């Protein structure tokens, strides 16, 4: 008798629906469990090994980031359905079957991240604590009275660094609370806009006490008028609070297609880490800014760990949504490292696409053009492609003359899709986000292709930004603090 025929291979349609299925099973597959366990075991072994030598904190941070990846990966799988049951879910609007997916998975990232950076505290500070308190191997040392009065060498313990570290944790916790609150209650834009500025107060206070530099280097052509340094004073704190407001909000509005919130954040974190490595690897070593850049890496590596696990689930076809929690949290991680690492201007160079999206969005954000609740690109169910989403202009509600003139100009410059009727009245205009603008320029495309192209653009602009920062800046500044001085 002929053996039974093997089952037919699944068609490509059913394959894609398999991989895009939302998280329905809370258990990890055997391969996933083994991979995560191996990664975690390797990281724990590396971590244990750091106690043997000098306790190299950077290696410990790397190992903890691996643990953070595994924990986030498993927890998203285990808790996705629990979040849905609690009402934290959203519809994936750019798919044929509009399924509900778990929302607010950034909360899992934030919690794992915060626990990891707290567990990390002893690693960079261990040696100083031992030296300062005569703990560890020095327990039997008889302390002289004058040492006791000096706080038992406590002056050797880098309090300022620990204060920076703790202030960073407070700021990140505050922003995580705001994000979760927003995902739960959908807080209105005008109510939540300034909250990141309050969350940044601990950072700004530590900056004031620890660093306090509020002057900026003046470009060479302007030096005859303004001098070498221009003192901004209190305005510098206003500027840093502005960066704190801008970074989280700008990531949240460059959103709406699978994977884009996480992929842009991963690119920015990678580029910041690359910038840090330049200071750690390049001569002269140790560079005066070594500490700041090590500090930055201690916060960026675990962020990359939790983000990559989230990206696994959120990339097209998404199985979970990240929620506002992730966008705010990611933005605040960048604010924390750049303010405490004293490189907020470098961060701004890496946020150029977000800035472009914000400036381009301004007509809708500030009410000149109606702003619908969602401005994400429109899914054409017939073609399966994304097209620019539009704001309709009913005959009864046409733009005022100056706005109409500006809209037509933007249309002529190919910066907006404008549809007019025969009488010259506006019928619809595309929504003001760079995702829609990209579709206006490049034509309809699949959701994952749009995400890949925007991520590649973010990477290219960021790399160019770093190039400008370290090379072209030498044309208008005397020196670059990465150790290169013009003769
Ligand atoms: C911001 C944008 C809004 C955009 C939304 C998408 C502004 C002022 N606000 O609002 O225009 O539509 O982000 O995140 O620019 N969603 C998808 N696919 C995705 C990601 C999200 O369909 O890949 C939908 C889901 O229904 C999800 C919802 O968007 O539940 C999340 O929106 P939310 O983050 O609450 O929107 P906002 O941040 O307020
Ligand atoms: Mg959002």
UniProtKB/TrEMBL annotation:
Residues 1-11 have a biased composition (Pro residues). CDD domains: GT_GPT_euk. GO terms for biological process: dolichol-linked oligosaccharide biosynthetic process. It is found in: Endoplasmic reticulum membrane. Keywords: Endoplasmic reticulum, Glycosyltransferase, Magnesium, Membrane, Metal-binding, Transferase, Transmembrane, Transmembrane helix. Pathway: Protein modification; protein glycosylation. The chain crosses the membrane at residues 58-80, 101-123, 162-181, 193-217, 229-246, 253-274, 294-313, 325-343. It holds the Pfam family Glycos_transf_4. The keyword Ribonucleoprotein does not apply. This is UDP-N-acetylglucosamine--dolichyl-phosphate N-acetylglucosaminephosphotransferase. The lineage of its organism: Eukaryota, Fungi, Dikarya, Ascomycota, Pezizomycotina.
């Amino acid at each position: 008798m002929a053996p039974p025929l093997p089952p037919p291979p699944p068609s490509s349609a059913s394959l894609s629906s398999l991989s895009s299925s939302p998280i329905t099973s809370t258990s990890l597959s055997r391969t996933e469990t083994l991979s995560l366990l191996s990664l975690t075991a390797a990281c724990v072994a590396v971590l244990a090994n750091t106690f043997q030598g000098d306790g190299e904190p950077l290696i410990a941070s790397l190992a903890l980031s691996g643990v953070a990846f595994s924990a986030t990966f498993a927890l998203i799988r285990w808790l996705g359905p629990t979040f849905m049951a609690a009402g934290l879910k959203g519809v994936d609007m750019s798919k044929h079957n509009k399924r509900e997916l778990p929302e607010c998975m950034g909360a899992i990232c934030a919690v794992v991240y915060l626990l990891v950076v707290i567990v990390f505290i002893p690693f960079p500070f261990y040696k100083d604590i031992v030296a300062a308190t005569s703990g560890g191997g020095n327990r039997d040392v008889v302390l002289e009275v004058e040492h006791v009065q000096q706080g038992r060498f406590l002056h050797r313990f880098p309090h300022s660094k620990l204060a920076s570290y703790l202030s960073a944790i407070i700021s990140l916790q505050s922003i995580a609370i705001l994000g979760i609150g927003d995902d739960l209650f959908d807080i209105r834009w005008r109510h939540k806009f300034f909250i990141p500025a309050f969350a940044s107060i601990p950072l700004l206070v530590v900056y004031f006490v620890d660093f306090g530099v509020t002057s900026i280097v003046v470009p060479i052509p302007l030096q005859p008028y303004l001098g070498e340094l221009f003192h901004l004073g209190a305005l510098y704190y206003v500027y840093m609070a502005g960066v704190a407001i801008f970074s989280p909000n700008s990531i949240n509005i460059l959103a709406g297609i699978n994977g884009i919130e996480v992929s842009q954040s991963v690119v920015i974190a990678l580029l910041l880490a690359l910038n840090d490595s330049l200071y750690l690897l390049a001569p002269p070593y140790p560079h005066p800014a070594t500490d700041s850049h090590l500090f930055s890496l201690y916060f960026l590596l675990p962020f990359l760990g939790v983000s990559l696990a989230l990206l696994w689930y959120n990339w097209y076809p998404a199985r979970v949504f990240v929620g506002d929690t992730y966008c705010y949290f990611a933005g605040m991680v960048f604010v924390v490292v750049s303010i405490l690492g004293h490189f907020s201007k470098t961060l701004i160079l890496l946020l150029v696409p977000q800035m472009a999206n914000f400036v381009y969005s301004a007509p809708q954000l500030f009410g000149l053009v109606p702003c619908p609740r969602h401005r994400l690109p429109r899914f054409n169910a017939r073609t399966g492609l994304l097209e620019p989403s539009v704001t309709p202009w009913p005959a009864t509600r046409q733009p005022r003359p100056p706005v109409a003139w500006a809209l037509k100009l933007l249309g002529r410059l190919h910066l907006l899709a404008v549809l007019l009727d025969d009488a010259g009245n506006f019928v619809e205009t595309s929504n003001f986000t760079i995702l829609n603008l990209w579709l206006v320029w490049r034509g309809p495309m699949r959701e994952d292709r749009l995400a890949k192209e925007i991520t590649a653009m973010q990477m290219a602009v960021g790399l160019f930004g770093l190039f400008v920062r370290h090379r072209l800046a030498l044309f208008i500044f005397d020196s670059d603090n990465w150790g290169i001085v013009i003769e």
